[in-house]
Each structure stands twice: as structure tokens, then as C-alpha cells.
Amino acid sequence: MPNVKKSKTTAKKPKIKIEKLPVDESVVYKFNPDLMASEMNPQQARFLVSCFEQQKKSRTRPQSQIRSIELTNREIVEAVNACAEDYGKALIQLCEAHDLDVEALHLLATTDENKNTCALSRESIIRAFTAEHKYLTYLYSQQEAIENQMRRAMEVYVKTQRVAVWAMKYNKGFGPIFAMKLLAWLDIEQAPTVGHFYAFGGMDPSREFLGAERARAAVSAATGTVEEIMLKLCAEFGQNLETIRRLATTDKDGNQIELTRASLEKALSRRPYHVGVKTLYHLIAETFMKQSPPAPWRLRYEQIKAEAQQRNLTGGFAPLAARILAKHPNHKQANIYVTGRIPDGHLNNWVLRKLVKQFLIGWHRACYHCRYGVEVPKPYPIAIQGHGHLVAIAGQPAWQEPGTRIDVERWYPAPPTVGSMLNTISDNTAQPTNVDIHGELQSKLLSKRSVRKNFIHQDQASKIAELA
């Protein structure tokens, strides 16, 4: 019987079809948690900025100490130089002086940054004793990762705010971190005029910071009841009466306490402004100053500085110089203030303050327009002091009478929300811009880095692609 080869018949596996579904926000949020920041309210945004500042401080503190093992570079250099060319002896002496393992430090000193063997030298010993500690480096990298994630979340949030979009579009050098901090710290409902923003950032010269010693001396020297003393000192030092009363009659837990001399001293000793806001104003002004000359704010800075220098030469700052001499008679630059002029450093700070004040006029106006839909009251120098003209602000309508209706949708168009973008992605009639957004989200979900970072299996990633 002839050999007949039997044909192998293999059954085909049925193909599993996955039905395409519209993009679910929960799926996108799972692999893009930063998008959840778009749903924050102002109070939550303020809390995020506070956490960001604390995280930044906690990371920068050990940053200067992370490359040291309880040794200073000066001690290491002096010990190595004392042993001349005998670097092995210097290594042993340093290890014995600081109770370190000689073999471990010798291995570290004879290995370069690329883990190749090298000769024992002066530079290798210094590098070995100042090498990064592994655990401290790990903690530092984790803190840096959390800080970067907070920064990405803030960038997402500001893109959903009308005022922030306007500021980043028409003010070169003004980034999302600046916008986020201003949105979190400056409340338009508490600031009917831009002067409230000035005072909150420490740019109101009538409000004087006393401190603990001066507040104690002022309260001790005053006579009368505590209520009378509070009224008198608030008027003398330009403090807000309602704020001082609230601080003097409330403890740290928010409970009501009795108004006494001690509580009044504590309330008067506090700063009448926000330190973080004051620093932020200075950073914004310096950023504008460091822009290239074609930038609008750089040109404005040069214009203000030229006018200030001419005013300083003609004695326009003589009253300011006299007040500084009266307050600080032993000033290091008293020889300049005596002539009725101010030094160059003081002049530059004055220019920076005026520059950021002009920016805050536009920021306050944009916030006021988006919140109330009408024109803002005129600033104090224009309405009360009778100063010149109002500066035109890029991207905003011409100045009108206070209370005039403003077309908010025209000047501050509503930015797209994450939900609207996701709904447009799932629509077949999506515009090219939304298709690009879809492709960007899909590439992030399917990239090897995202799969490895989020511990997603490859089949789960493919399902996400099908769902998208």
C-alpha cells in the first residue's frame, strides 16, 4: 500500500473584533493625570500653588548638601595638598579622620564617571569624597519628579483660564507658572482697584512693616484703651484697621479671642503684604527686563529707565533721598543721597516696580472684565492724583468710562476644555487641530515610556488604542 501523506488541517482561530467606543475621560485621566487639573476650582488651585512652593523649598534645601558626606571641599583639598604626591597616604588619613571605609573610598577614587579604572590622583580623591549619596540622590530625584508633575498640572490649568491665555499670548516672557501664581494669590473679588494688588504685594509705601520690636515699643508707649491704641497706631503706620482687628481677635485655629495689648502687638508685628506675591512681582519685572530689545516690555523698560535717569539728574528724587537719609542716617551710600539723587541700584529697582505696576494694570483689567463684564475704575494716579494718560494694553480694548459694558467673548475667548476636546476627538467630523490632539494623546498612551511608566501590559495598550 503506497504511503500517502496526510495533510495537516489546522483550524483558523476566530478573529476577535473590538468595537470602537467613544473616548472615555476616565481612561484618558488614568494615563494622563495632569488633565484632571483643568477641573480645579480657585481654592484648589491656590492649594496646588502652596504645595508647589513647599515642594520646591524642600527640594532646594538638600540640593547644596547632596554632594557631600559631612565633609567640605576645603578640608579635602588641604589634606591632599599636605601629603604632596602621596595620594594613598592622603586617602588613608581622610578615611581615618572621618571613620570611613578605606577600601570603598579607594575603589571609588580609582573609578571614573564612566566606571572605568583610573589612576589615583588629587582630582579623583576629591571626587570620591564628594560623590553623590545614592539614597539622597534617589530622594532628590523623586522630589524633582513630583515638582515636575505639579508644574505640568499647573500648565494644564492655566490653559483653561481666559485671563491666563490672554497674558501668555500678549506678554512675551510671561509663562504658565507666573500665570498660575497670580490666579491663585490675587482674588479679583477682593480687589476693586489695581491698588489692592499693589498693596498685597508690598508696593504701597504708606503701609509700613513694623516687626516685633517696633510693634512692642509702639504699643507700650501708647496710652488709653486697647481699642483707642489700635485706632491710633493703624492711622499712624498706614495699617488696615479691619485686618488688624481680625488678626488681633483670632487665634491660629480661627477661634475668637479677647483683644489685648499682647494680641495687638502680635497683629501689628506681621507683614502687611504677602512675601510670595512681592517676590513674584520682582521676578516678573526681571523677566521682562531680560527680554530681547524687540520685546514690548523690554522697550517699555528702557523708556521708563531713560525717563527715570533724567529725573534723577534734575533732582526729581530729592524728596525720596531725604526720606531715606532721615530713616537711615548711617547708610553706606549716604554720600549719594546727600546730593538729592538715588544710586543706580535703587533707581533700577524703582524702574522695575513701575514696570510691573503697568503690567498689573492690564492683569487687573483683564480679571475685572472676565469677572464682571464692565470697564474697571480708573487707577488711583489717574482718578485722584491727576496723572497723564492711561497706557494702551496689548490685546485689550481701548480705555472707556468705568462701568461700560465689555464684549468679553471677543477680547477674551473661552479656551477649549478637556471634555470638549475629548468629545470632538470621538466625532468623525473632527477638525484637523483636534485630530492632532487625538494623535498626541494616542502617541503618549502607546509610547514605550508610558507603557513602562504606568506598568501597562501590551495587550492593555492595544485595547486603549482600539478604544481611542
Average pLDDT figure: 79
Helix/strand class? mainly alpha
* Percent of sequence in beta strands: under 5%
Assembly type of the shown chains?
single chain
User: Whole-Å distance between the termini?
Assistant: 60 Å
**What kind of sheet is the major sheet?**
none
Helix and strand element order: HHHHHHHHHHHHHHHHHHHHHHHHH
Separate helix tally:
25
Proportion of residues in helical segments: 55-70%
Instruction: Supply Rg.
Output: 32 Å
The number of E-state strands comes to 0
Tell me, briefly, the overall form: globular
The poorly predicted ranges are 16-25, 67-71, 424-468
Give structural notes:
The protein has 468 residues and is mostly helical. The protein is built from 25 helices and no strands. It has helices at 25-31, 42-60, 73-82, 87-97, 102-109, 122-129, 134-158, 162-170, 176-185, 194-200, 211-221, 226-237, 241-248, 261-268, 275-289, 296-313, 318-327, 334-337, 344-372, 380-383, 408-411, 418-426, 432-446, 448-453, 458-467. Helix 2 packs antiparallel against helix 7 (134-158) and helix 8 (162-170) crosses helix 9.
